[in-house]
């Protein structure tokens, strides 16, 4: 029995020694793997962080560039409009000079009519259109009612019968509402 106990103790010691040896070796492998793993994650983190910073900087540059382009576009857009309108002003000045010198009223009327036509073409060229009013149904989004009058017939109800002031649109946006009289 003592012999058996000795063998069991020997086996236990041998087992403990082999386990210790395995534990001693295992942490070294795990430490190496763990440090490699941490290094990989740090490299990936640094790469993603660098990518994020570059992307953020690019977006900031893009935002600044588009703001500058918008400001330049507005400035140059208004400049083009003003250059175009100067031609109409020149025509008015010539007409005013000739009104006092001429005795032919029909020629003056014709000149003023030509200038008016040129100015309307200028507005159309730049996207300004007149809002149709008389005979149209009253629309609060496009018209401003100044007053109402009794309708002559049932068909005329809620229709515009007269326009006091013209209205204009720039594209799809109303820039001046027409002042109208509506039949009720």
Could you explain how this protein is built, in words?
- The protein is α+β, with helices and mostly antiparallel strands.
- It has a domain at 129-184: Head domain of nucleotide exchange factor GrpE (Nucleotide Exchange Factor Grpe, Chain A, domain 2), CATH 2.30.22.10.
- It is built from 2 helices and 6 strands.
- The strands form 2 sheets. A 3-stranded antiparallel beta sheet has the order 1-4-5. It has a 3-stranded mixed beta sheet with strand order 2-6-3, with no helix packed on it.
- Strand 4 and strand 5 (173-176) form a beta hairpin.
- The radius of gyration is 44 Å and the shape is elongated.
CATH class of the domain at 129-184: Mainly Beta
Order of secondary-structure elements: HHEEEEEE
Rg (CA only): 44 Å
Name of the CATH superfamily of the domain at 129-184: Head domain of nucleotide exchange factor GrpE
Based on Cα principal axes, name the global outline. Answer: elongated
**Largest sheet, strands/sense/barrel:** 3 strands, antiparallel
Q: What is CATH's topology name of the domain at 129-184? A: Nucleotide Exchange Factor Grpe, Chain A, domain 2
Which blocks of ≥5 consecutive residues have pLDDT under 50?
18-29
Distance between the termini: 123 Å
By DSSP, the count of extended strands is 6
């Amino acid at each position: 029995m003592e012999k058996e106990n000795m063998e069991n103790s020997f086996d236990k010691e041998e087992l403990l020694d082999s386990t210790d040896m395995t534990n001693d070796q295992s942490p070294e492998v795990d430490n190496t793997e763990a440090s490699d793993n941490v290094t990989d994650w740090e490299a990936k983190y640094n790469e993603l962080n660098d990518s994020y910073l570059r992307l953020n900087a690019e977006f900031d540059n893009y935002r600044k560039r588009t703001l500058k382009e918008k400001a330049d576009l507005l400035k140059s857009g208004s400049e083009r409009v003003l250059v175009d309108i100067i031609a109409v002003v020149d025509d008015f000045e010539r007409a005013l000079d000739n009104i006092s010198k001429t005795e032919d009223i029909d020629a003056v009327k014709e000149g003023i009519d030509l200038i008016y036509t040129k100015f309307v073409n200028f507005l159309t060229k730049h996207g300004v259109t007149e809002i149709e009013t008389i005979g149209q149904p009253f629309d609060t989004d496009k018209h401003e009612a100044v007053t109402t009058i009794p309708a002559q017939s049932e068909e005329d109800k809620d229709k515009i019968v007269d326009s006091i002031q013209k209205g204009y649109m720039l594209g799809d946006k109303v820039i001046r509402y027409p002042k109208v009289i509506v039949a009720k």
